[in-house]
Amino acid sequence: MINDEIIEKIISASQINKEDLVIEIGPGLGTLTLKLLENAGKVIAIELDTNMIKILKDRFNLYDNFIILNEDVLKVDLKELISKYSNKERKVKVVANLPYYITTPIIMKLLEDKINIDSITVMVQKEVADRITAIPGDKLSGAITYSVNYYAEANNIAFVDKNSFMPVPEVDSEVI
Fold first, then answer.
1. Over the range 16-30, which residues count as b (16 or more CB within 10 Å of their CB) and which as e?
2. What number of other Cβ atoms are within 10 A of residue 50's Cβ?
3. What is the pLDDT of residue 2?
4. Are residues 18 and 42 in contact, defined by beta-carbon separation less than 8 angstroms?
5. Pairing of strands 66-69, 173-175
6. What does pTM read for this prediction?
């Protein structure tokens, strides 16, 4: 992500403050992570790629509100993680640029596991965002539309042109 304006829109839309526990899924090189650390009380980044772990640890070693886990988010017990690092005053928010190849399983895990999460602000592939935020019964609706609609209210926040990334992917994205 090389578009600071989009990063700011994500931070603004997620309404993060110093009391919040933020779970970031797939932080990559940490472009979004930096802004999360500046705004949140604690950030737990879950990264599967072992090559990124050292980079993230080196980059954010001076932040005392940063925890990095080298795990598969689909296998992490998020309830346990939240209970370990949260308290009754601390809101829990998921903020992430989700790995596009597993977007739906991640979103379904976050919703179906009945985790105490106050909000989910994620960047996903544009076509997936259109399905997630569609109105049930609309021509764009699908199984994910109905599932998300059952658990939450989904809204479009910002369109993200593919040129906002380096390297440039083949698809546009959307923050929802």
1. beeebbbbbbbbbeb
2. 8
3. 82
4. no
5. unpaired
6. 0.92
